[in-house]
Amino acid sequence: MWNALKNAFKIPELRDRILFTFLALAVFRLGVYIPIPGINIQAWSTYFGALSEGGAGGFIGFFDVFTGGAVEQFSIFLMSVTPYINAQIMLQLLTAVVPSLKEMLKEGEEGKKKYARYTRMLTVGLASLQGFLISFGLSSNTAIMAIPNRILFVLLSTSTLIGGTMFLLWLGERITEKGIGNGISVLIFGGIVARYPASIMQVVVALSPVQWAILLAIAVFTVVAIIYVQMGERRIEVQYARRVTGRRVYGGVSTHIPIKVNQGGVIPIIFSSAIMMLPQFIATAFPEGSGGRNVIQSLFAQTSPVYILLYGGMVFFFTFFYILQQMETHLMVRHYEGFVKKGKLRGRR
């Protein structure tokens, strides 16, 4: 593994991509510690601690991990890329029922650029709504506001949150273009991993050596099992008809369609988590201690049966939906006159 890393840095283009990715992650982590203007940080820290121990504690803790600690800092990146993920979900669902959107994706690079532009526009709209709900809900707590004017606070906070989300979207696109991997996924991964050192230290202090060893063994087994399932695939053999064009012979060869065991990956979980955050954001628009806020927070708490059923149902739905979106290989196979032999399913693991 170390030899592979050393060899990667010997290739100039790959080295530049790796360094650019780390630089982008450093910018992201720096932004997490820049608070939104007009916030009393000490008052927010006290309020955040109370929220973490209250009915919304599960959601606040989960969202704070998802954003890499941006919630605890009330950072300009507080909303992270959740509006973009929600925009992607909405457009993908619309693509399945709106023929014009589906045809747009088949128009090559121009169609994809237009689709990406629609995604950004929808992201701005969702970020505006989400940012307004957060800002308006917090504006009822005068201790948190460092600006006496409530309207000015809401406008400043909302615009800053929108700007932070759109900057992360831009940064993610630059990572995809000039770095390693999918930029948005890299940012989410970087935010989650950034909390690992502190979490590991808390576990080390709280557990005995035997408990720590058991937990480490479970963690290693879990990682190995996930990799094993993720790498597993079923290969369906496909035959192509032989064609003669002039003096050349085309086709007559066999290949395979790789069908992964976990075709959906983590996308359904990310989509479902992003949607389940929305009710809690809506709850912030209600005054602290009001009936509407308490009802929403109790219904959509992570330990609530309603939350568990909805979350599980959405994971199943998005798994099937995402697989169906990907599994259009049969159209390409049919176009090139390919076929699977009749009889018992032929395939290799």
Automatic annotation (TrEMBL):
Cytoplasm as UniProt keyword: no
InterPro entries: SecY, SecY/SEC61-alpha, SecY_CS, SecY_dom_sf
GO biological process: one example: protein targeting
Broad class of the protein's primary localization: membrane
Keyword Membrane: yes
Topological relation to the membrane, as annotated: Multi-pass membrane protein
A Pfam family hit: SecY
Cellular localization per UniProt: Cell membrane; Membrane
The entry's keywords: Cell membrane, Membrane, Protein transport, Translocation, Transmembrane, Transmembrane helix, Transport
TM ranges: 18-36, 118-139, 151-172, 179-198, 210-229, 266-286, 306-324
One Gene Ontology CC term in the entry: plasma membrane
Function description: The central subunit of the protein translocation channel SecYEG. Consists of two halves formed by TMs 1-5 and 6-10. These two domains form a lateral gate at the front which open onto the bilayer between TMs 2 and 7, and are clamped together by SecE at the back. The channel is closed by both a pore ring composed of hydrophobic SecY resides and a short helix (helix 2A) on the extracellular side of the membrane which forms a plug. The plug probably moves laterally to allow the channel to open. The ring and the pore may move independently.
Family: Belongs to the SecY/SEC61-alpha family.
Subunit structure: Component of the Sec protein translocase complex. Heterotrimer consisting of SecY, SecE and SecG subunits. The heterotrimers can form oligomers, although 1 heterotrimer is thought to be able to translocate proteins. Interacts with the ribosome. Interacts with SecDF, and other proteins may be involved. Interacts with SecA.
Name of the protein: Protein translocase subunit SecY
Protein source organism: Mesotoga prima
Species lineage: Bacteria, Thermotogati, Thermotogota, Thermotogae, Kosmotogales
Name of the encoding gene: secY
